Amino acid sequence: MPYVQAPEARPVPDERYPGSQQDRKDIATQTVRSSKPKDLRPPSPPTPSQTLNSSSLPPPMSDQDADPSLDVPTGVAMPYNIDWIFPRLRNPSKFWYVVSQFVVSAVGIFSKVVLMFLNKPRVYNRERLIQLITKRPKGIPLVTVSNHYSCFDDPGLWGCLPLGIVCNTYKIRWSMAAHDICFTNKLHSLFFMFGKCIPVVRGIGVYQDAINLCIEKAALGHWIHVFPEGKVNMDKEELRLKWGVGRIIYESPKIPIILPMWHEGMDDLLPNVEPYVIQRGKQVTLNVGQPLDLNDFILDLKKRQVPEPTARKLITDKIQEAFRDLRAETEKLHRERN
């Protein structure tokens, strides 16, 4: 399905900027789009005349070059047809919200019991996360990013939040979930859909319905959580982050608040080996980092009309760099607890 910008994505006043800076701010909404439906195929590599002077751009942090050909869709098995899910997530009905509230509440209470009462969590800068969820400027999206060490990272980590957030379908995050794990049949698909999970098809690149829908939710000022490693990182190696998060941030009509987080111990709470049973008494450390101040950087990319494949890579590189520092800090905090 082609990406069609949400009707609500038209420019609106941005509370982060005074009136005198509104013209400059509006550049953030000017990602070049054709009036025709957007072709979801990866764009052609930029011509030499489009290539920016490499000295004017930050050095790349990812492990691979920004080659759009890496995103060419490949043959991916589809165990279950998920096409019917996207229209329901794009335009939720009143019935959807009622059922979603029930599912989100049940999962939220379960996550809080497991994390806060059965185990030993320590959350650093928790209030920072709560403030950005509940009191950020109206219409400004929040994109949280974290490492992915356990299948219980989401929803488990959100057990640290107050019940008014973790049990509220209007406040809890949108999150992408693997189509071949969470959306394998009708019952599972309904459960995860009502839990505000968006099916992402791993292996077909950044031009897919899941990323498009995240951009639309960002246009509405919602909270979106992304695991940019793209999978459960059982070996805890430093992976090149997936560029989908960069596209969400770059194409959002309003530049999101970007909040990195790092956690340790979730793979002890729910080990990645059979029989996959939730454990008790495990130490879990969650460290909420400082929001990334990329506004001027992204505005400059848009002003210079940097090709989207290059721009999303550069943005993702910034997140990767922040992850490195936050990981070292969190691992140290976690070790000191032991």
UniProtKB/TrEMBL annotation:
Q: Identify the keywords attached in UniProt to this record, alphabetized.
A: Acyltransferase, Lipid metabolism, Membrane, Mitochondrion, Mitochondrion inner membrane, Mitochondrion outer membrane, Transferase, Transmembrane, Transmembrane helix
Q: Which SMART domains match?
A: PlsC (SM00563)
The GO biological-process annotations, alphabetized, read as: phospholipid metabolic process
Locations listed in the record: Mitochondrion inner membrane; Mitochondrion outer membrane
Q: Which GO terms describe its molecular function?
A: acyltransferase activity
Give residue spans, biased composition: Basic and acidic residues: 11-27
Region (Disordered), start-end ranges: 1-72
Domain Phospholipid/glycerol acyltransferase: where?
A: 142-266
Record's InterPro entries?
Plipid/glycerol_acylTrfase, Tafazzin
Q: What is its main location?
A: mitochondrion
Q: Which Pfam families match?
A: Acyltransferase
The superkingdom of the source organism is Eukaryota
Q: Name one GO cellular component term.
A: mitochondrial outer membrane
- Could you tell me the membrane topology recorded for this protein? Peripheral membrane protein
The record lists the membrane-crossing segments as 95-118
Similarity field:
Belongs to the taffazin family.
The name this protein carries in UniProt is Tafazzin family protein
Q: Which organism is it from?
A: Drosophila melanogaster (Fruit fly)
List the top taxonomic levels of the source: Eukaryota, Metazoa, Ecdysozoa, Arthropoda, Hexapoda
